[in-house]
Amino acid sequence: MRHLVRLEQLSKSYQDAGREHRVLHAIDWAFPQGKFTCLFGRSGSGKSTLLNLISGIDRPTGGRVWIQQDGREVDLTGLTDRQRTLFRRRHIGIVFQFFNLIPTLTVLENVALPVELAGRGEVGRRRAQELLARVGLGDRLHTYPDRLSGGEQQRVAIARALVHDPLLVLADEPTGNLDEGTGDAVLALLLELTRDAGKTLIMATHAREIARHADQVLHLEHGRLVAEG
Ligand SMILES: Nc1ncnc2c1ncn2[C@@H]1O[C@H](COP(=O)(O)OP(=O)(O)OP(=O)(O)O)[C@@H](O)[C@H]1O
Ligand SMILES: [Mg+2]
User: Reading across the β-sheet that carries 200-204, which strands appear in turn?
Assistant: First the structure.
């Protein structure tokens, strides 16, 4: 099976009161293209750390993150900070637990922002409107995020993560702050717009029931990835 993301001896440590705290230990793993990988692990096991390395928000202490783009593998870890930011803006979408919307921008402006930053404002506003209609918020374009429910805010965040048509979508506990029914609806929408549309989705979660929707279930234990089943 083709993979989209490949981790090679990926390690991350933090200095903690003068001691080395090793969070990820030389992980080798390949994430299949167009599939949904669900990542479990107890609190503090390093799920967010791993997603932040794959997105290039953070840098590893050792090893590499490779991402397939136009038929070749790009070494994300070999890029400069600026190059990684540009790569992320073009190819990666991220959904967070606490939505991370900008309170002073409208719903439409929040969703269009990633494309505006890439200098394609016109396209961004059109794509943003289409996506907001698809997530059921076509009549809330000019509302501010604090007027929306948690589930609605997360739908805006999903639209924002997809507005630049990324190869890869990373989600860090996207339903962690929602009640069960709202979380189910947000998950269904996220799967429809990512995996079902051929995109690769990697999601960290504590919600066991999400595993049954996943193509691959992983556990982060003692700094290593272990496949379930
Ligand atoms: N900037 C940092 N400096 C020092 N230690 C850090 C830093 N960021 C994370 N850690 C440590 O790395 C470990 C993994 O943290 P991480 O946030 O990745 O866990 P997690 O699996 O996402 O947990 P949760 O399920 O609670 O979100 C923790 O022990 C945490 O304290
Ligand atoms: Mg986390």
Answer: 92-95, 168-172, 200-204, 36-40, 216-221, 224-227
